């Protein structure tokens, strides 16, 4: 009996924390005024916000529905993929010129993001030689 | 028992309202976003909020059958975000 009451309190706490973090992320997405700054807020939604909601679901199903930890799969998947998509969106911002350019490198090198891939270099040389 | 159940019901209703509101706010950013990166980011946030809404729906109905739906939406959301960003970066998705 007390076990179930504690589980209900824990579920309520996790729901409130998840809702608050989701709201903070959405407000940050809406109110910040720079593309790279806006990238900061919604990553909190992907980790703590949905993570707390999934934790509430795990606790509720574990106590009242006889055990369920499959939600850990979703949590792990989101934790793994959130930095990758954030990295790609930051690369999009850099390539579209939506942020300050990074500082110059000392030895005349390029930043790796702006490098052409090796296949493109080979293709470029092939095209120039055939044109000549 | 009754107070704890009532508290969980209120927290569930509040979470539904707040996550739905966040979905609408991300939709506003999709419409007004000045750059392509903002739109991709807002769509990614909308996918994550949709996962949260489905988890909340399964919690309110007391079932576990929505787990597969949210897992599939998580995978499709990641793949669509990466392919959209890749299309903007390179003009092609699979080269």
UniProtKB/TrEMBL annotation, chain A:
Coiled-coil regions listed: none
Domain of life: Bacteria
Keywords annotated in UniProt: Membrane, Transmembrane, Transmembrane helix
Transmembrane segments: 6-29, 41-60, 72-90
Stretch forming the signal peptide: none
Molecular function via GO: sodium:proton antiporter activity
InterPro entries named among the record's database cross-references: PhaG_MnhG_YufB
NCBIfam families the UniProt entry points to: CPA3_mnhG_phaG
Cross-referenced PANTHER family: ANTIPORTER SUBUNIT MNHG2-RELATED
Stated name of the protein: Multicomponent K+:H+ antiporter subunit G
The species this protein was found in: Sulfitobacter undariae
Automatic annotation (TrEMBL), chain B:
Subcellular location: Cell membrane
NCBIfam families listed in its UniProt record: PRK06161.1 (NF004812)
Pfam families in the cross-refs: MrpF_PhaF
Organism: Sulfitobacter undariae
Recorded GO MF terms: sodium:proton antiporter activity
Family affiliation: Belongs to the CPA3 antiporters (TC 2.A.63) subunit F family.
GO cellular component: plasma membrane
Its membrane topology: Multi-pass membrane protein
Spans traversing the lipid bilayer: 12-32, 39-59, 65-89
Keyword check for Transport: yes
Domain of life the protein comes from: Bacteria
This protein's UniProt keywords: Antiport, Cell membrane, Ion transport, Membrane, Transmembrane, Transmembrane helix, Transport
UniProt protein name: Multicomponent K+:H+ antiporter subunit F
Keyword Cytoplasm attributed: no
InterPro entries documented for this protein: MrpF/PhaF-like
